[in-house]
Amino acid sequence: MRLFLLLSSALLVSSHYFPSTPSHSDWNPARATYYAAMDPIDAVGGACGYGDLVKNGYGKATAALSTVLFEKGQICGACFEIRCVEDLRWCIPGTSIIVTATNFCAPNFGFGADAGGKCNPPNSHFVLPIEAFEKIAIWKASNMPVQYRRIRCRKEGGVRFAVGGGGIFISVLISNVAGAGDLSAVKIKGSRTGWLPMGRNWGQNWHVNADLKNQPLSFEITSSDGVTLPCYSVAPKNWEFGQSFEGKQFDS
Questions:
Q1: CA nearest 66: which of 105, 12, 118?
Q2: Which residues of 17-41 are buried (b: 16+ CB within 10 A; e: fewer)?
Q3: Which residue segments constitute the domains of the chain, with CATH numbers given?
Q4: N or C: which end of the chain has fewer CB within 10 A?
Q5: Are 129 and 60 in contact (CB under 8 A)?
Q6: pLDDT band at 22 (very low <50, low <70, confident <90, very high)
């Protein structure tokens, strides 16, 4: 079954495991499979809406998440550390990978969760690019038991705001988010307005109906851990639909 996959920032491989700290959650059991891109379109699209992941700085350190992990798109942008466990025939000892959640692995209810429905509830499952999978396991292993934990994201540069829409409909794709990685709330402000709450369209695409043309745009974004980051005058007065801008960044 073909996945829309988005591919994430340069693949990070560690030869050790991080100690549990407030910035790292406990290890949890899951399984992981891989996909191999058959044509260039497999590198774009995806349920989080990030577009071309290589162009947008995510590279191939990405993952599609099963229903119980995807949280209806709230999780988009979160970072996970994954390591192979149990099957010493196939695991590459002492390695782990760090991936960003960029896509959804849809359930297949024609099969049971213990058969072909690998992404069916209640399974915790990651689908990885083969380049990422082969950092922790031999590719012949296919459906592997793994452990995962949520970690803080580290990103280069500021948070990116890609402005789309038309007329009074404004949509903003927010990417390259450090810290928690995923957002729970977004507000937008023009020079002639107060702060306007934006609604989640899907993934990390947010929208609002407002006439904000010919006004510099500011954003206030709140991550899933409750940290709020104001980014003032991110877009200049003469901004246009289709342009992208860079703001401040969360601490990682």
A1: 105
A2: eeeeeeeeeebeebbbbbbeeeeee
A3: 12-151 (2.40.40.10), 160-246 (2.60.40.760)
A4: N
A5: yes
A6: very low
What residues are paired with 183 via a beta bridge? 223
Name the average pLDDT for the chain: 86
If you search the block for the tokens 């010493």, which residue do you land on? 88
Reply yes or no on whether the pLDDT at 7 is more than 70. Answer: no
The mean pLDDT of 138-165, rounded to a whole number, is 93
> What Cα–Cα distance (Å) separates residue 231 from each residue in 55, 221, 222?
23, 8, 11
55 exposed, middle or buried (CB, 10 Å; 0-12, 13-18, 19+)? Answer: exposed
* For residue 219, pLDDT beyond 70: yes
Place of tokens 């390695």: 95
Helix/strand/coil for 246: strand
Q: Is the pTM of this model over 0.70?
A: yes
Residue 5 has pLDDT above 70, yes or no: no
Q: Quick check: 215 and 193 in contact, CB under 8 A?
A: yes
Distance CA 98, CA 17 (A): 11
